[in-house]
Structure formats: C-alpha cells, structure tokens
# Entry
Amino acid sequence: MVIFSHRGVGFGSRENSLSNFKNAISNGFSIEVDLRLRKGKIVLSHDKSCEDIFEFEGLMELISEYPHILFA
# Structure
C-alpha cells in the first residue's frame, strides 16, 4: 500500500513547500502535488490566489533526489 501526503500537509506550516515534502518523505509518505501554470511557469499551488508557491524545477530536483518516492 502507498500512502500519499496531500501537498505535504501535516509536516510543517506551509503546504506545497519543499520542507513539508521532505518531512513527509522522511516519514515514509509519497507526495501528491497540484500543478498550475502561473505567469508562463509551472508551479505547485493549490489555487490561483495562493501566494505560497513552489516552482516546478524544485519538484524535479526533489524527484531526482528521492527516486524511490512516488509523486502524483
């Protein structure tokens, strides 16, 4: 069974943040993310009004750092 952390919620103060994702991974969870196109860039953000965004390039680095983790 694979258990996903929804946007890193529960592992820090901000969802869709690099630190939350790393905390979720260190606790054995895979990661679910929301992708959006914002100002010509792909970002991780739940809604278009969200100010706390994480750029797609950072997600790709995270994926390469943790190849055994599933991302959805």
